[in-house]
Amino acid sequence: MTKYRVSADIGGTFTDFVVAEEDTGEVFTGKVPSTPKNAALAVIDGLKDLIPNPPDIGFMVHGTTVGLNTFLERKGARVLLITTAGLRDSYSIARGDRKELYALQYRKPERLVPRRDVHEVRERLKWDGTILEALHEEDLEPIIKKVKDEDIKAVAVCFIHSYAYPQHELRAREILSEVLPDVSITLSHEIAREWREYERASSAVMNAYIAPVVERYLVSLGEQMRGMGVEATLHVMQSSGGIMTVEAARRQPVYILLSGPVGGTIGGMALSKAMHRPNLLCVDMGGTSFDMSLIVNGQPNITSETELEGLPMLMSIVDIHTIGAGGGSLAWLEAGALRVGPQSAGADPGPVCYDRGGTQPTVTDANLFLKRLGAQTLLSGRMMLNEEATAKAIHTMAPQVGLDDVAFAEGMLSIINAKMADAMRTITVEQGIDPREYSLVAFGGAGPMHAVWLAEELEIGEVIVPWTPGTFSAWGMLQTDMRHDLTLNFYHPLAGMDSKEIEGIYEQLKEEGVAALKEEGVPPEDMYFERSTDMRYVGQEYSVNVRVGDKVDLEEIDASFHNMHAARYGHSTPSAPVEFVNLRLAALGHLVESDGRFEIPKEDGDPVTETREAVFDGKAYKTPVLWRYRVEKESKFSGPLIIEEESATTIVPPGYQARVDDLGNILITVEQA
Amino acid sequence: MSTKVDPITTEIIRNAFVSTAQDMNATLIRSAYTPIIYEGKDCSVALLDENADVLGQSLGLPLFLGNLEVCVKLTAELLGWAIFKPGDIYHMNDSYLTGTHLNDSTIFGPIYWEDKLVGFSATRAHWLDVGAKDPGGAMDSHEIYQEGMRWPPTKIYENYKPREDVIELVRRNSRFGHGVIGDMNAQVAACRTGEARFHALLERFDYETVLAARDEIFRQSEQLEREAVAAIPDGTYTAEGFLDDDGLRTGPIPVKVRVDLEGEQMTVDLEGSSDQTYGPVNCGFAQTISAVRVSFKLLVNPDRPVDGGTFKTLTVKAPAGSIFYAQEPAACQWYFSSLGLLIDLITQALAPAMPEKVAAAHYGDSMVIYVAGTDPRKENIPFLSVEANPGGWGAFETNDGQDALINNVNGGFKDYPVEVYENKYPVILRRYGFRPDTGGPGRFRGGTGIYREYHMESASTVYLWFERSVTKAWGLFGGGTAQGPDVVINPGTDDEQHMLKVNALPVDTGGVVRLKTGGGGGFGPAWERDPECVREDVIDGYVTREGAERDYGVILKDDLSIDEKATEKRRKAMQKEAKKSV
Fold first, then answer.
1. What is d(CA B510, CA B473) in angstroms, rounded to the nearest whole number?
2. Mean pLDDT over residues B29-47, rounded?
3. Which CATH superfamily, name and number, covers A4-70+215-256?
4. pLDDT of amino acid B2
C-alpha cells in the first residue's frame, strides 16, 4: 500500500501542500485558499483533494501562522502575570529604552498585559539560589479569586532568578493548577531558561497569550484528521527550524510562533543537502518585504532571541533579516531625486497595474513596463494586469527627474536591487562571510525576478530558483528533523573551569532532550545532539555562540571563541579573560533517510509559450517565455529568457544561461563563452 | 564639478553611504566591551568626504549628531591636512575640541584611493574609565585635569600598524584598561569597515562619479531643509530654565534660549546663559552645536538621514566662556545635563510655532548612579556599576507622555536587568516600579517617573548625579508641571538622608539607596482630560484616587466608578481658579 508523507504550510492567503509518495519518491504539490477563521478546514480540504485515501498518510507536518496572527491581530487571551513582590513593574517599564531616537512623541510598543493585570506575590531568591524570602502561598489567594471572578483563561508566572532556581514557579503552578484546572499556566523558566526578567516575562506572556487559541486549533485539527482516519502523529514546524509533535507544541505554543516565516530557510537547508551546496544565501522577496537568511555548512543560523513588534522573546529561532523592499515598493520624488521604498503600496491599492486605484509606480509596475513580467502571468491569467495604467504612471513621473520612461523603470529596479544588495552585504560581509562562496536561492513571488542582479552585485556565481518556489517552504518541512532546544544559564569564567562540570551539565541537558524525543516516539538510534555555548569577553554583553564537540575541551572552546570573534568583528584579544553565559544543547531526532531527491511530474507540450520584447539595459530583446512545467530536466538555455510558473517568474537576462538540474531547480550562471 | 551624474546612480550612492554608516555602527556596537556602548549606545560613527563633510552618519547617541566631522576639521586646522597618511588612525578626547567629557574617545582615520585622500571614517564611543580622580569620572571635579587623561589628536595606528607604546599608555591610565582597549579596537574595526565599504563603492563607480553624486545629495538635503524651515512662522521665540547646581552646591544655573526664525534661516542664541561654572556642567562649543542640531532635527525632517547638506540653515551662537563654550580649565564631566535642558527649552520656545510637533518637557537628565566597591563573593575583585535611569516624558497634542523612558540625550539605553545586575554586583535590587502621580496633569498626562531600590550586600561607595529639581518638567498649553527627582539613603531609619548629587558616599552593608526619578509635563488643561482616561489611570495605578481628585477634578466612588456630578462641580471650580490666577 502506498504511504504518503505530507507537509502543509498554512499562510495568510494560501495553504500549500507538498506530498511525497514513499515508494516512488514522486512529489506533487497543491494549493488551497486558507480559512483564517478555522485554519484546520483548509488543511482538511487540501488533504481530501490530494490524497485518494487519507488513512494512507504515514507522516504529517505543518507550519502555521495561527499563533502569529493571533498576536498580530491582538486577539489572544487576556493574560494575568504574576511576579516577584517589589518588581512588578519591570514588565511594564520594558527596560525603558527608545527604539526611535529622533522622536519627541515616542510611545513604547504596546505590551500584552496592562499593569492592572500584573500582580505580585512575596517570594525572593538571591542570585545563587539562597532564599531571601520564602514563597507566601497565601498571596496567591486573591489572584486566584480574580482569575475565577473575571474568567481569565491564561496565567504567566515570572519570578526573579527562576531561570536557575525554578522551585517557586513550580510550587506556584502546583497551587494554581489545582484550583484552576481549565486555565493555561505558563512558567517563565519553562519557556526560556535564561536570565533577564523582562525578556523572560515577555516570552512567557506571549506563550500564555496565544496558548488558548493555538490549543483550540491544534485540538480541532487533530480531531478532524482522526475523523478522516489518519492515525499518523501530527507534527508542527518550530521557529527554530526543527519540528515537534502537536502534543509538545500545545505545551509551548510560542515555539511555533514563526513557523511560517522560517519555512523558506528550512527549504534552503533541504536544498543544501540535496544539491550538495553547503553555503546558501536565501532570499524571499514578496510584496512588501525582503527576507534574507543564511545556510552555513548545511545549517541555518539560529539565534536565541528575537523581537516581534518591539516585544522581545527568548527562544531559538532561525535568523532572518528583513528590510522593506518588495514588488509593492513605491517610487517617489523629492527635491529632484528619485527614491524607491521602503513605503509599499501593499495589497491595497497595490501596484498601479492591479487597477485598484494606485497611481504611484511600484517595482512590480517597473517589471511589467519592461515586459519582464507578463500581463497575464499572475495566478495563471486569473488576474490581468493593466499595462496602460502602468505606462501612464511611469510616464508621469519619469520626465520630472529628466529620464525617459525605460531608463526610469530600469532605474527603479537598479535602486531597489542596490538596496537589497546592501542589506545582503550587511548579513554576510559585515559578519565575516564572503558571499562569493555562496549560492543565492531565490523564492517568493518577486525573488526569482531580481535574483540575477542581486547575485551580480555581491559577485555570487550561481542563482538557484527551486522547483515551485511558491511551495518551497512546505517542501523544506518534509526534509527536516525533530528538534528540542535546551538551555542552561551558566555564568562562569572560563579560566579555572573544570571541564567535567560542563560535561555534567550537557549530560543533564541531554537527558532532558532524550526524554522529550522519546515522548515523541523517536527511537534512541535516531537521536543526535548538538552542543554549543554562548561566550564573550568578560564585560561584554553580546555573546558568540561557539560549537562544542562531543568531548568538552576548554582550550579548543577558548580558541574557537577567539577565532569566531575575530572573524565576526575583525579583532580578538586572546589574552583577555573569557566567560560562559549559556550552555545550549539541541536534541534532534532523525526522521527519514532522505537525500532530498524526488520525482516531479511533467506536463507535455512546447515549453515556449510566447516571445516578448523584454527590455534589458535600455534595449528590447526578443525574449522567449517558457512554461516551467514543460521544461525538460537537464536542459540548457541562454538568456534572455523568461520562465513562468504558477507562483513566480524567473528572469534570465542576456549574458546569463540557465540550466534545469535533475531535481527541477533552475540554475543561473554567467554565460560561458 | 563637471561630471554629470544621473538620478539613479545618485540614489544608489546615497543609499550606500547610509548603509556604510549603519554597518560601521553595527561593527562598533557588537564588538564593544562596555555596556555603556553596546547597551547605552553611547557612540556614533560617520563616513566623511575628503573635506570631512558627512556622507553618512549612524547614531547611537543623538547628542553626537554632526560632531565627528568637527573633530576631523579641528585636527586638520591644528596639524594641516597633509598630516593624514594611509593607514593612520587618530584618537582624541580633549573636551575643548570634541565638546564632550574626556570619557568620549573620538577615533578616526583617513581613507585613501589611488594615492588620493578621499575621505575619513570616524567613530566616537564612551570609555568606562580614563583615569579621573574617581572611578568612571568624578562628580565633583572643578578642573579638567581631575577628569582623566586629556588627549590631543594622537596617532594610535600608523600605516595600518598599532603604535603599541601609545596604546599601552592609554591602557595604563585606565582603571579598566583591557576593557578600554577592547572598545578602542571596536572603534578601529568600525573605521576599517567604513574604509572597506567606501573602497567597494569606488571600485564600482569611479571617484568623479561619487563626487558628483555627493554634490547632488548635499544639494537635495539642503533644499529639503530650507523648505521645512521656511514653513515655520517667522519670529523670535524664547525660553529659560535652570540647572539645579553645578555639582559643587552653586546654583541654580540659568540657561537662556532665543530662537530667531527668518525665512529659511534659524538662529539659536544662548546669550544670557550662565558663565562657565566651577563645577563640571560645562561643555565645549562643538557639543553645544550638536545639541542644538538635535533639537532642530527633532522638529525638522526627523526621518531624513544627516549629511553634508543638513544644518546649512541653522546658526548657533554662544558666548565664549559660558557653560556652552567652555575654556580651559573648566570641568566638563557632566556636560550633558546642560544640554538635556537646552534641548527641552528649544522645544518649549518653538511650541507656539509648531504645536503639533512638540512635546512638554521630560524628566530631564540621565539620573546617574555609580556603585563601586569590591565583591566578597568573587575574591574581592573591584567592581563599578554605572547606570542611567528612566523617567517620564512630556505629553503632546495627541497622546500621553511615555512612562519610564530613558532621557533625550541618551541613546537606545536599556536599564540593567535585576537578574544580571545581582549576578554581577553584590547588591540586591528589591524594588523597581512606577511612582504614581509624578506625571504632570493635563488633557494628556505626562509620563510617570520610577523608583529603584538598592540593598547593599557589602560596604560600597555610591555616586549620584540627579538633576531637574528646580526646573521640573513643565507642561505646555495649560498642562501641569511634573514631580521632580529625589534620592533617599537608608529610608525610614534614623540616618535617613535626601540628596541628588554626591561624590563617593560610603554606604554600609545592609544600607539602602532609593532612587526616584521625575515625571514628564502635561499637555493642555487637566480638566479637559476624559474622566474615563483618568479612571483607567487609577485602575492601572499611574494616578492615585487622591491624585485624580486633586489634579484632574475626577471624583471616583469606592467601586472606582465616576461620580459624575461631583466631578463636574470640582472641574468647574478648577477652571475658575485657573482663570483667577491668570
1. 34
2. 79
3. ATPase, nucleotide binding domain (3.30.420.40)
4. 46
3-state SS string over A138-152?
A: HHHHHHHHHHHHCCC
pLDDT at A447 over 60: yes
Q: Give which of A541, A545, A572, A580 to mutate to test B binding, by max B Cβ within 10 Å.
A: A541
A381 interface with B at CB cutoff 8 Å: no
Over residues A203-248, the pLDDT tens digits come to 999 999 999 999 999 999 999 999 999 998 899 999 998 999 999 8
What cell was used for A446? Answer: 518577486
Predicted TM-score (pTM) of the model is 0.92
Q: What are phi and psi of B101, to 5 degrees?
A: -85, 170
- Among A132, A198, A537, whose Cβ lies nearest the Cβ of B182? A537
Q: What ipTM was reported for this prediction?
A: 0.93
Residues A386-395 have pLDDT tens digits of: 999 999 999 9
A residues 161-220 closer than 8 Å to B (CB): 161, 163, 195-199
What phi and psi, each to the nearest 5 degrees, are found at residue B111?
-115, 130
Non-local CB neighbours of A534 within 8 Å, separated by 6+ positions: A304, A543, A544, A545, A546, A580, A581, A582, A584
Q: Which helix (H) or strand (E) holds B196?
A: helix B177-204
What's B560's DSSP letter?
S
pLDDT bracket for residue B288 (50, 70, 90): very high
- Within the 322-351 window of chain B, which residues sit less than 8 Å (CB to CB) from chain A? 347
Q: Is A403 on the interface with B (CB under 8 A)?
A: yes
Q: Is A537 on the interface with B (CB under 8 A)?
A: yes
Give the model's pLDDT for residue B1. 41
> Residue A289 — φ and ψ, nearest 5°?
-135, 160
- HSE-CB at A125 with a 13 A cutoff on CA atoms is 20
Does residue B539 belong to the interface with chain A, where contact is any CB pair within 8 Å? yes
What nine digits make up the cell of A443? 523564492
Q: DSSP assignment, residue B391?
A: B
Is B179's Cβ below 8 Å from some Cβ in A? yes
**Would you say B403 and B448 are in contact if contact means Cβ atoms under 8 Å apart?**
yes
User: C-alpha grid cell for residue B448?
Assistant: 510617570
Please give the Cα distance from A392 to A411 (Å, whole number): 17
- 468-527 in chain B: CB under 8 A from chain A: none
Q: Which CATH class is domain A482-589?
A: alpha beta
What residues does each domain of chain B span?
7-223, 359-521, 525-582
Question: Burial level of A618, CB count in 10 A (0-12/13-18/19+)?
Answer: exposed
- CA dist B208 and B5 (Å) reads 9
Kindly state the DSSP code that residue B233 receives in the 8-state scheme.
Answer: P
Task: Give the residue among A425, A414, A408 at the shortest CA–CA distance from A452.
Answer: A414
Radius of gyration of chain B (CA): 25
Contact (CB, 8 A) for A272 and A433: no
Question: Where along chain A do the CATH 3.30.1490 domains lie?
Answer: 482-589
* Alpha-carbon span B33 to A543, nearest angstrom: 11
pLDDT in tens, A20-38: 888 877 888 888 888 878 8
Q: Look up residue B480 and give its three cell numbers.
A: 501641569
Class of domain A72-208: alpha beta
Report the SS3 class of residue A619: strand
Q: If we measure between CA atoms, which residue out of A80, A38, A69 comes closest to residue A253?
A: A69
Q: A498: how many CB neighbours lie within 10 A of its CB? A: 10
How far CA A436 is from CA of A299, B305, B514, in Å, comes to: 18, 31, 56
Residues carrying CATH 3.40.50, chain A:
72-208
Residues of chain B found within 8 Å of residue A103, distances taken between Cβ atoms: 298, 302
Q: How far is CA B79 from CA B84, B86, B91, B191, in A?
A: 9, 16, 14, 21
